[in-house]
């Protein structure tokens, strides 16, 4: 019998992969809790929660039970003209969890579609009000997904060459720091005075794909105040930061000024099934509410509000708001602080940073984002039984909330080995 790794190569085309350079995939046969098992039986602690999804652990029994129950009741139905209990129950739970100004939910299938919808909402919002605003504002180094609108606003999609001529118009601003915030706000005013900006899309507090680059809530708050005073819609891309990772349910909870639109996916469904939600305020919704059919949002995906995905999301929210998970989040935040105190002055470390359970460190070596040193680092982690995915010279941890102290220590130890041996 051929291995998964060999059979894979015949027909499969993997994401973000140059197959000529990286022909071999690792066959994973099982996952439970914080652990992935490969086809040789080797175990890996999932230090990045399979791209920030399975925060309550893989194959979580509580989530499996809820999804299984739903499977026997209603699997899938068209969401135009029909509705169902799992979507309604999820809307009630999610609206309670979200910042208090959020009132309406629009479903889709993944993070990219959730931002694509946020962008379309912002453009059409102004269009419906009879204003032509065709430009979007976004941060440098942002990442919002791989569909066309999402690619347009992402500055980090480094391999977008073939598509760049077809992008939406985007004006970029730097990520705020103590040093640049004054200038940034001044220039922002000038840009906004042109009245061409429809919406500002941003990853609040932590830019995931930018290697967990972090900025202060007080600075972001100032930017939001300015854009809002120009009637620009704030579109918070919480696809990565949502559902507890920053220490609060949403990164937007750290600010008084609330977004008009919030994009969610990844941990929304606890890593069990793909789904996304774009939420908005009553005011945004009202701009589409009309006797004129053309003012509606004519966007829809076949699997919109899939009942199984809704059931998984509901079960996830129940776990997120439980005492147990909230305590775990608090513990992980402290463990990271302890680890940081231990290593931050190491000569091989250029900088460290933490927001909630997200911890990142930059190594003092220059290397390419997907180059050889990075591959060596990755191999070291995997050999030591830890799945971490360094981005350039940044190593970051975003482990599930159910990671035990012992498992986290294994991650820390593997990082310490890098510091002492690379
Ligand atoms: C992952 C991610 C996306 C894209 O989500 P997909 O489900 O991969 O399409 C968008 N925005 C942010 C902030 C992300 O982290």
Give, in order, the helices and strands.
Answer: HEEEHHHEHEHEHEEEHEEEHHHEEHEEH
| Uncertain segments | none
In total, the number of strands is 16
User: Roughly what fraction of the amino acids lie in strands?
Assistant: 15-25%
Which hetero compounds are present in the coordinates?
A: pyridoxal-5'-phosphate
Supply the helix-strand structural class.
Answer: alpha/beta
Query: Per CATH, which architecture of the largest domain?
Result: 3-Layer(aba) Sandwich
Total domain count: 2
Provide the CATH topology of the largest domain: Aspartate Aminotransferase, domain 2
| CATH hierarchy, class of the largest domain | Alpha Beta
For the termini, the CA-CA separation is 38 Å
Largest sheet, in brief, is: 7 strands, mixed
Q: What name goes with the CATH superfamily of the largest domain? A: Type I PLP-dependent aspartate aminotransferase-like (Major domain)
- Strand arrangement across the biggest beta sheet: 4-12-11-10-7-5-6
Q: How would you state the average pLDDT, rounded?
A: 96
Rg, nearest Å: 22 Å
H/I helix tally: 13
Mass-distribution shape: globular
Question: Helicity range of the residues?
Answer: 25-40%
Q: Please, could you describe this protein's structure?
A:
This protein has 422 residues and is an alpha/beta fold. It has two domains: 4-60 and 324-419, Aspartate Aminotransferase, domain 1; 64-320, Aspartate Aminotransferase, domain 2, CATH 3.40.640. The protein has helices spanning 4-11, 49-52, 61-71, 85-97, 111-128, 148-153, 181-192, 217-229, 282-286, 307-320, 323-343, 372-383, 405-421; strands spanning 28-32, 35-38, 43-46, 102-108, 135-139, 170-173, 197-202, 206-207, 213-214, 233-237, 261-264, 276-281, 349-355, 358-363, 386-387, 394-397. The strands form four sheets. It has a seven-stranded mixed sheet, with helices on both faces. The structure holds pyridoxal-5'-phosphate.
């Amino acid at each position: 019998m051929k291995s998964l790794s060999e059979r894979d190569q015949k027909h499969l085309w993997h994401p973000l992969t140059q197959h000529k350079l990286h022909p071999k995939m690792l066959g994973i046969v099982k996952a439970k809790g914080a652990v992935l098992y490969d086809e040789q039986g080797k175990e890996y602690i999932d230090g990045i929660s399979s791209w920030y999804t399975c925060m309550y652990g893989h194959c979580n029994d509580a989530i499996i039970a809820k999804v299984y129950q739903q499977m026997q009741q209603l699997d899938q139905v068209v969401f135009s003209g029909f509705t169902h209990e799992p979507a309604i129950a999820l809307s009630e739970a999610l609206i309670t969890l979200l910042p208090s100004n959020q009132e309406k939910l629009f479903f889709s299938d993944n993070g990219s579609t959730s931002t694509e919808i946020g962008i379309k909402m912002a453009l059409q919002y102004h269009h419906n009000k009879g204003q032509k605003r065709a430009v979007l504002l976004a941060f440098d180094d942002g990442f919002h997904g791989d569909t066309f609108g999402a690619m347009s606003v992402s500055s980090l999609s480094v391999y977008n060459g073939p598509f760049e001529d077809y992008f939406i118009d985007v004006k970029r601003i730097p990520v705020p720091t103590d040093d640049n915030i004054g200038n940034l706000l001044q220039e922002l005013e000038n840009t906004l005075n042109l009245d061409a900006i429809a919406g500002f899309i941003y990853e609040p507090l932590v830019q995931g794909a930018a290697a967990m680059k972090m900025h202060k809530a007080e600075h972001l708050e100032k930017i939001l105040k300015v854009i809002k005073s120009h009637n620009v819609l704030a579109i918070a891309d919480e696809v990565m930061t949502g559902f507890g990772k920053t220490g609060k349910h949403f990164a937007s909870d750290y600010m008084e000024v609330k977004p008009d639109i919030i994009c969610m996916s990844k941990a929304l469904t606890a890593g069990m099934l793909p789904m996304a939600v774009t939420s908005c305020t009553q005011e945004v919704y009202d701009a589409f509410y009309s006797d004129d059919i053309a003012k509606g949002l004519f966007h829809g995906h076949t699997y919109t509000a899939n009942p199984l995905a809704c059931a998984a999301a509901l079960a996830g929210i129940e776990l997120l708001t439980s005492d147990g998970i909230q305590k775990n989040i608090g513990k992980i935040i402290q463990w990271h602080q302890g680890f940081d105190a231990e290593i931050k002055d190491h000569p091989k470390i250029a900088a460290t940073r933490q927001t909630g359970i997200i911890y990142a460190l930059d190594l003092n070596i220059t290397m390419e984002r997907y180059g050889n040193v990075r591959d060596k680092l990755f191999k070291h982690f995997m050999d030591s039984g830890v799945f971490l995915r360094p981005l350039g010279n940044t190593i970051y941890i975003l482990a599930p909330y159910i990671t035990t102290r012992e498992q986290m220590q294994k991650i820390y130890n593997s990082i310490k080995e890098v510091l002492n041996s690379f």
